[in-house]
Specification:
The protein has about 180 residues and is of the alpha+beta class. It has a domain of about 120 residues. The chain has four helices and three strands; from the N terminus they run ααααβββ. Helix 2 packs antiparallel against helix 4. The radius of gyration is 35 Å and the shape is rod-shaped. The N and C termini lie far apart (about 100 Å).
């Protein structure tokens, strides 16, 4: 077999050191590491890797620290609701003995103290407002950052507001 397809496959495979990109014209100085215009190709992958590494690092920061921000917001919402309920449970004694159940009011000092106790137990900052039977709590929870601390952002936080009203009896079902 002396035809064109008679060469063995092993004879057709070129060794790795002979594989070079195809230049239609050889470089002027004969250096295989330069392209046709004489510009060096060495180090071009390093710039690409730096850009990709920075992008991946920024993405990791968004995922980790964004998750921390969402967690802080969820914690603030949870603690604000708990503190508002605790404040609304601190009812005024005279309103409990009133003939009409619609006259329930919260004891302002006891409601603030109960809500602040819940906030401090959860290590969350907040403000408590008592108006009649309505207790409103604003809460701020903070979480430390993992990646953004490198650029000077040490913590991310979340805010939430919840309101609770003291009710008499049950409110489930419609009439």
């Amino acid at each position: 077999m002396s035809g064109r397809g008679s060469r063995r496959a092993a004879d057709r495979i070129r060794p790795w050191h002979e594989l070079r990109r195809h230049n239609p014209r050889p470089p002027a100085d004969g250096n295989p590491d330069r392209d046709v215009d004489g510009q060096a190709d060495r180090g071009s992958i390093a710039a690409y890797l730096v850009v990709i590494a920075v992008a991946l690092f920024a993405l990791a920061g968004l995922v980790l620290d964004g998750g921390a921000a969402l967690t802080a917001h969820g914690q603030a919402a949870d603690v604000a609701a708990q503190a508002a309920r605790a404040g609304a449970d601190a009812l005024d004694g005279t309103s409990l003995r009133s003939p009409t159940p619609a006259g329930l009011t919260a004891n302002p000092a006891a409601a603030r103290a109960a809500a602040q106790a819940v906030l401090s137990a959860a290590d969350v900052q907040g403000e408590v407002t008592v108006t009649g039977s309505q207790v409103t709590v604003w809460a701020h929870a903070a979480k430390p950052t993992a990646i953004l601390a490198i650029v000077g952002i040490d913590e991310v936080g979340g805010n939430a507001t919840a309101t609770a009203i003291a009710l008499h009896g049950t409110t489930t079902g419609a009439s």
